[in-house]
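Throughout this chapter, every protein is written as a compact record of paired, labelled lines. The reader may check this reading against the record printed directly beneath this paragraph:
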Amino acid sequence: MRKSLDVVLEKHIDSKTVAEVEAERLRIGMVDDTLTARTRELLGLPASTKPALPTLTIGQLLKVFAERHVARSATVERQGYQIGIVIRTVLPRPTGGSAALGEWLTSDVTADTLERLREARVVRDVHTRATGSNRVGGVVAANRDLRLLRAAFNWAIRTGYTERTPFKRGTVSAVTLTREAARSRRLQSGEEERLLPACNAHLRAIVEAALETGCRKGELLGLQWSQVQFVPRPELWLPADKTKTGKARRVPISTRLRPILEMRRAALRAALELKDDEPLPLTLNVFGNEIGQRIGAIKTAWRLACERAKVQGLHFHDLRREAGSRWMEAGVPLATIQKWLGHTNIAQTSTYLSTTTAGEHEAMRRFEERRGRLIPVDTEGGTPLHQQAQSTMTKDSDPQQNPTKH
């Protein structure tokens, strides 16, 4: 029985040349038994008797990768969205025609296929939806898609789903990521004072928590009361399955953050009408809605707050850099900052942080103070520092013999 190509391919073919190519591909597939299970079903053919792995598609690989690996990570929602984009991206086949990447056999994906994916994804566009619009594409988006596929292929090799990866030819990398411009955006003078009042009460608590803990947005939105500890030491506990790197970490609760958490706990108890001797359910979310349910996103609230505060070019993730940079400027050891931020190595922490001009001058002032060149002074005082240093020495004294101030 003849089948319509539109039905079998599940898309409309309006070119005779493309139709002939696709028809020939189907004929070869029936002879070689390389058709996907879905195509065989649409053609009315019995299930294939060949081993499943040679006919594994990218869509099938990413599905099992998501179920077996991504589902246990803290970035499951974002990566699930990414997987959807990757498998829907239509790329031209080297034999003619085109198909969504999810329909490609893993054995057909080459380094050039990945380069075509990069070219398709670097194009910036605005995706309009019923709930609003969203910017898609760009160098960062393309790199994330390639990282996702690279991780999927590496996982598939470890678990036996495939024996090759298109990202390498032997031991040589065949596909490299595009170099991204490193962000160094921090809060500028006056921005925090304008931004916090522009946030609603819920968003303000999240923003202040980000500035005090350096946690990622997903880590804060998924934070449960079981992860908050007030005694014997106030700290947040982030288990491995709730962090991006898959490694657990602890972050001390600052004196600024503690009253915020206590106020949210009291408000939640009141909303749930709990008695004084009734414990708070620990599975409820710290930064959830009024009854502790997790909220989906804060993207719109963040954008509107920045618009009201007239703060431009600030991403929520920049608050994480701001927190780490403030710690560094205050003298917290880099190794400690690495642990609090949850970075894999200290080099990543070093390149991630950024100091302000004021912070650099303050660091120099502290250095000279430790070297005995300056007397510890109020940084808002009016006496020039060099005059204060000179006043500590007599005309006949030797600067090398002056005691060092610590």
The mean pLDDT is 84.
